[in-house]
Amino acid sequence: MEKPISKAQLQRLQVLYSQLCRHTDQATAREERLHWASSLIERPIASFRDLTANDARHLIDSLQGQLGVKAPPKRRLNRDAAHRAGVDGRRNSPYAQQPQMVSAEDLAVIDDYISRLGWDRSRFDAWLQSPRTPLPNRARPVIATLADANRVRWALKRMLQRAGLWEERLA
């Protein structure tokens, strides 16, 4: 027996479908919504509650792709990890003697900031090696620790704010 749709999946599916209806000529009637879902999962359904977790995941991925919406973060940091992520790289950080390696998520955030500035990788690398770098006193600046990533992110965020390009994003 397959796992049924979760409450969170049901809510996400309903929100995304209503957004699709607002942005396209998709009908909002219940019958049309069920017909849309049935055609995508290739079996008739009488209600979204009849969906399995895998069916819901497929529909949600499809809707997010059509809308250009990123999935919400899959993991949340616990309180201590969130605190550390926020203070690594600051002066007098309690973690200064215990460096933490940078994660793929941190590098993805930096890449997002770079693209929002309209920079390519060569311009970013040139900025990192310039006198205005947030990673000074290094022959070849590399983002290796969370502290390095935070310094770079904060500097890029300030540039985005000054250019009027800053907006909070959840993903």
Q: Can you lay out the helices and strands and say which pair or pack?
A:
Elements lengths: L6 H17 L6 H12 L11 H15 L11 H9 L16 H14 L3 H8 L17 H17 L9
Helix pairs in contact: 1-3, 5-7
Describe this structure in words.
It is built from seven helices and no strands. The protein has 171 residues and is mainly α. It has two domains: 7-67, no CATH class; 79-162, no CATH class. Helix 1 (7-23) packs parallel to helix 3 (53-67) and helix 5 (104-117) runs parallel beside helix 7 (146-162). It is elongated and about 65 Å long. The two termini are 33 Å apart. The relative contact order is 0.11. The model has no long low-confidence stretch (mean pLDDT 86).
Radius of gyration: 22 Å
Span from first to last CA? 33 Å
Average pLDDT, all residues: 86
Largest sheet: none
Report the β-strand fraction as a percent range: under 5%
Helix content: 40-55%
N-to-C series of helices and strands: HHHHHHH
| Helix count from the secondary structure assignment | 7
Please, how many domains? 2
E-strand count? 0
Class from secondary-structure proportions: mainly alpha
What shape does the CA trace take? elongated
Low-confidence stretches: none
Task: Give structural attributes.
171 residues; mainly alpha; 2 domains
Task: Please outline what is shown here.
The chain is mainly α and 171 residues long. 54% of the residues lie in helices and 0% in strands.
